[in-house]
Design brief:
Helices cover 49% and strands 14% of the residues. The protein is an alpha/beta fold. It folds into 3 domains: 108 residues, no CATH class; 170 residues, Fumarase C, Chain B, domain 1 (Orthogonal Bundle); 211 residues, P-loop containing nucleotide triphosphate hydrolases (Rossmann fold, 3-Layer(aba) Sandwich).
Amino acid sequence: MMDLKIPGGYTLRPEQEAFAKEASSILHNGGLYMVSAPCGIGKSLAALLASLPQGKKLVICYRTKTQLGIYLKELRALHPPVLAVSLFNRLEMCPLDNSALTYHEFTERCRRLRSETMDRMEADAIKSTGHGSAFRMDKRKLKRIREYPCPYYALVKIDRNGARSFARDCCRSFMDPVQVCALAKKKGWCAYESLKAILPEASLFLGTYHYLFNPPIREMLERSFAPLPEINIVVDEAHNLPLFARELLSAKLSLHAINNAYSEIQRFRTKMSDDLLHAAAPDDVYEAFDQYDNAAERALTITDGLRVVLEKLGDLVGDRSKKVLGDRVGGRSKKIPPRLVGRMVRAACGDDWPQVADHILWYGEVIKEKKENDGEERIFSYTHRVGLALRIFFESTGPSYVHLVERSDDGRRVAIAVRNMDGREITAQVLENVHGGILMSGTLTPLPVFSDLTMSGMNDRVALREFASPFPQKNRLILVASDVTSRLPERSPSMFERWAQYIDAVCASNRGNVACFFTSYALLKKTPTPKTSGNIIVEGRHTLREEVLSQLARSDRNVLLGVMGGKFAEGVDYPGSLLTCAISVGVPYAPWDDYQRALIGYMEGQFPRKGRTYAYHTPAALRLAQTCGRPIRSESDQGCMVILDNRVLSHEILSCLPSYLRQELQIVHSPGECADMIRSFWSGPSG
């Protein structure tokens, strides 16, 4: 058991001390501490104080890199005697230029370069020493390192002791992966492989959710670090976990991917024909030509057939919907029986889906092998991905899966998807096997819902705790408008105009930057643009977070327009007075489509009389609470939260919100009253 000392000049808050003591006791007894603690409690430091002295290996997993920075800062202050390894994924840590590659293309390239490097090293070792042990060789006897396919990987394998010593020094200083990568590149090492090499001797690992909850990646961590029963875990921003797990178990096959596969097969067919016709042995060419050409023709027939299938299925969803399968369809997704899709695949492709998937997968492997042999950088194959997605679509069966055809809002993107409705298949496997853990978030409410959605049993191990906000109530104003709503039947031009009046009133009366978050981009576009003399920033697909934060820092007369759940509403801090007011336009309920109905039905079966609460109301309240909390991130922060939807006052939403929101909200009945209360707030003692 290590003795941790609080950094000089730092005093634990009462709630922080209570958190650390309770968590420490629960971890010691092999339990799980699920805690909802609003921003300002000091969750990160409390979790470290509770878990580091336990004498167990520790895994801390987080959702964003910002959270990693917080932990590393606390570790530098505590400076415990631990070896702490933190990793991003291979692509983010690779010293080579991969800017033109997708993640899948990079993984193929990295695998190939590592394999080719090992083969070259073994061959050189045999020439130099008479045996194939490249790792025992003096690196001076090898060819120059730069001549290997991946010189950074080669140097780690050749100079293992040097790479490990370098990694240890970095980890004992609690450097973040970006710093380690920069130093490693200068020294000629692969940072990822260097850090991975010291995992067995490390006592603390920090990584994204994938390292703990994505089964193939977790297997690597268990082999290199420690098996689940021997570790304690800390899961930060744990409210994301149920959805994260469900998405890991889901898959999609889009019309866009099929079109890309069709084009890829055409290009590959032409290239193979040209290569064979220029071969040196004409007698062998004709048979090989027929073999490859027939395979290509079959692959083209299949992808063209799949394209027809998706186009027909796309007509079942959206504006072109019609009476099918006995009920009126519409919305963005439509439940579809996989047997019907299977029959359509057979009719369009001339074979049953297993044979169709097998041929496409095989042909995709042929394409990848050819690319690799030709020394191409981009080894990824759309054809292979289509075959894999098709197989997952049909093989993912059971009551926790729903098969859908989906169409984007603009109607241009169509896909078939299999979506999981119960992430416990992943989360329970981890939570019920680790020695102990802390799962925490500022919005982990209602706690019993989170426990039910992540555990399939052993709930006697779980301790639930909600902390009150540590911030002075006088520092924040929480308002709810009683005369507006985002309910679909009431979304009239007059309602959009009323929202605009509220937004204008807030912008005119607030002191500082305002962020206005809508439930969707469609709602954002339909609401009149705020009337303000300040700068208006609209969140888009390519909007950079750093640029927006820089703009907010330059002026206090900005209005940021974004969406709930977007890059500016969650997982981002606005330090100091960067943001002083957050407006939430509407309650962010999930679209009422076949997937949502199926999810509610499934949850109702798992948790009788609670299906709608678990699948519909709780996720909406969670996203709303995350959005509202943006302005208040420290004890000295002051800010306003304005919610423009009277449905927040319903029991269904109110009961799912954190206690401080429930207790402090005040009702306003007009834009003028809203503006008066904001002016009064800023002119009061706290302002």
